[in-house]
Amino acid sequence: MFSIFRSCCRRLFLLSLLLCWLPAQAQTEQQPAFISDNLVVYLHSGPGNQYRIVGTLTAGSEVIKLAEQDGYVQIQVDETRSGWIPKENLSFTPGIRSQLTDLQSRFEQQSVRLTELEQLSSEGQQALQRLTLERDQAQAELEQLKRSNERLSKELDAQQASFWQQPMVLGGAILLFGLLFGLILPKLIPQRRNSERWM
Fold this sequence. Notes:
The chain is of the alpha+beta class and about 200 residues long. It has helices spanning about 1-25, 95-165, 165-190; strands spanning about 30-35, 40-45, 55-60, 60-70, 70-75, 80-85, 90.
């Protein structure tokens, strides 16, 4: 009778130790995690294959790790579903599918940005070509104006030089000078008094 009692006490003691150890082992910090790249992972109702299957998860699914026990991890799938999966099926980095989706999204964004930059570059090149053409036209017009200015300056100099060389202009200038000299000179020279004139 005593051996049965001792055996029961031993079992109760072991059971109480197990119960104390299990909550300490099962309570861990919640942290985001991902299902690794297996095709399908079965979600069990407890930490082992002997527990019933309560659902399936596909690779790359985002979950929250709740606890860990005996090589199994308790996860929260959504607000209403939680369960246990083998620890090796859980990863704390996004799976290849998730990374591929992210990379495809970033590739599409970069492709759109590249297209916009190519369009801006094309518009910039067209504007540069237009401005270069306008600059060349302005330079050609400036050169033409310079040549016209030089030609007109030469013609004006030639006309001014030939103006004084014409006989009528030269004769008219001499006549004008003589006339002015003849009118002004008598006024400048004092006249002699006529002594024979009486007062």
